[in-house]
Amino acid sequence: MRLLVTGRSGQVAQSLAEAAGGDISVVALGRPELDITDRDSVARTIAAHRPDLVVSAGAYTAVDKAESEPEAAFAANRDGAGNVAAAAAEAGLPVIHLSTDYVFSGDAAGAYREDDPTGPQGVYGRSKLEGEAAVLAANPQAAVFRTAWVYSPFGHNFARTMLRLAAERDVLRVVADQRGTPTYAPDIAAGIFAAARLILANPGDKRLAGVFHLVAEGETDWAGFAEEILRQSALRGGPSARVERIATSDYPTPAKRPANSRLDTQKFRDTFGHVPPDWRNGASRCLDRLVGPTA
Ligand SMILES: NC(=O)C1=CN([C@@H]2O[C@H](COP(=O)(O)OP(=O)(O)OC[C@H]3O[C@@H](n4cnc5c(N)ncnc54)[C@H](O)[C@@H]3O)[C@@H](O)[C@H]2O)C=CC1
User: Fold this and answer.
1) Alpha helices, DSSP H, located in 139-184
2) Active site residue 184
3) What is the superkingdom listed in this entry's lineage (predicted)?
C-alpha cells in the first residue's frame, strides 16, 4: 500500500516514513511543496503521487502559542485538515486524520470514550475539534484518530526536554496533577499501518470510518512519565535527575490543559484488531535511541 503523509518533518510523519518497507511505501511531504492551507497544492500533490490512502499528520501543534495566534491554528488545524480530507475524497481516497485529547475538558472521572462530550480548553483544542468536524464532513471514508502525549526521537517533545534538562540540573519540577498516556510516535505509526490495511481491504465499510482513540496502554501523570524517562536514562548511563512533583497551578502556561487526558482505546482495538503496547515499553524503545541500549 502507498500512503501519502502530510507534515513531513513531524514526529508521526517521520515515524511513518521510517517504518515503511516491504509492501508499505510512504511519501511524506510538507511545506513548501505541500501546504495544507492551500487546497490546490494538496490536490496537485495527491494527483502527482497517486497514493492509496492519505494520512493527515500535518498540524499547528504549538499549544501555548496558539492562544495568541488563533488564525494560524485554525488555518492549519480546521481549514487545512478539511482541505486534505476533501482533496482525498475528490480522488476517491480514504483519509486517516490525527487529532488530540485536547478536544476534551479533562473534567471527567474516567477514560474518555469517542462519543463523550467534548469541551476544549484552548485555541489549539478548539481548532483541532473543528478540524475533526471538517474532515468527517468532507470525506465519507475518514477515520479520525485522537492520540495524546506524543514523543519520539524527533522534534520537540517532553522526553527530549527532560533529558536535556537532566543534563543541566539536579532537580526537575514536573506537574503531577494531569493524567494521561505517553504515546511513542512509532507506535502510532504501527496503529495507522494496521488500520490502513483494513480500510483498504474493505472499501466503503462504515465501521472503519468515524472517530477512534489511539494511545498506548496504561496511564501516568507528567511527573511519572519524567521519572520513567530518567530511570531508563540512568539504566543506560544517560543523564538523570530527581523529579519534584508540583501542581499545575505552580507552572502557569498560556493554554489550559486537561487534568484528565486518558483515552479509552477499546473501539480502536475492536475495530482494527491492533493493540498498542504499554507506554513504558514505548519509553524503553525511545530511550534506546536517544541514550543507547542498556548494558
Ligand atoms: N505532539 C503531541 O503531543 C500530540 C499531537 N497530536 C496530533 O498528532 C498529529 C501529529 O503530531 P506531531 O507529529 O507530534 O506534530 P509535529 O508538530 O511534530 O508535526 C506537525 C508537522 O506539521 C507541519 N505543518 C504545520 N503547518 C503545515 C502546513 N500548513 N502544511 C504542511 N505541513 C504543516 C509542521 O511543519 C510539522 O512538521 C497532529 O495532528 C497533532 O495535532 C495529538 C495529540 C498529542
Assistant:
1) 158-166
2) no
3) Bacteria
Task: Find the Cα–Cα–Cα–Cα dihedral 36, 3, 11, 212, rounded to 10°.
Answer: 90
Whether residue 295 is predicted with pLDDT greater than 80 in this model: the reply is no
Q: Is the pLDDT of residue 251 over 90?
A: no
The H or E element that residue 230 is part of is helix 222-235
pLDDT at 36: 98
Task: For residues 121 and 172, give the distance between their C-alpha atoms in angstroms, rounded to a whole number.
Answer: 26
- How many residues appear in the chain? 295
- Residue 294: the pLDDT is 84
Domains within the chain, CATH numbers bracketed:
2-156+181-218+261-277 (3.40.50.720)
What interface predicted TM-score (ipTM) does this complex get?
Answer: 0.97
Determine whether 165 is exposed, middle or buried from the number of CB atoms within 10 Å of its CB (0-12, 13-18, 19+). Answer: middle
Specify the DSSP element, H or E, that contains 232: helix 222-235
Q: Which of 60, 112, 124, 184 is catalytic?
A: 124
Angle made by CA atoms 129, 131, 137, in degrees to the nearest 5:
110
Q: Which atom of ligand 1 is nearest to the CA of 35?
A: 30
* Cβ(17) – ligand 1 distance below 6 Å: no
User: What is the rounded distance in angstroms from the CA atom of residue 217 to the CA atom of residue 189?
Assistant: 15
Confidence grade of residue 41 (pLDDT, cut at 50, 70, 90) = very high
Which atom of ligand 1 lies at the shortest distance from residue 80's CA?
29
Nine-digit cell string for 132: 475533526
Q: In 3D, which of 74, 91, 88 has the Cα closest to residue 37?
A: 74
Q: How far is CA 25 from the centre of its chain?
A: 20
Ligand 1 centroid, distance to 96 Cα (angstroms): 14
The overall pTM is greater than 0.90: yes
149 within ligand 1 shell (Cβ under 6 A)? yes
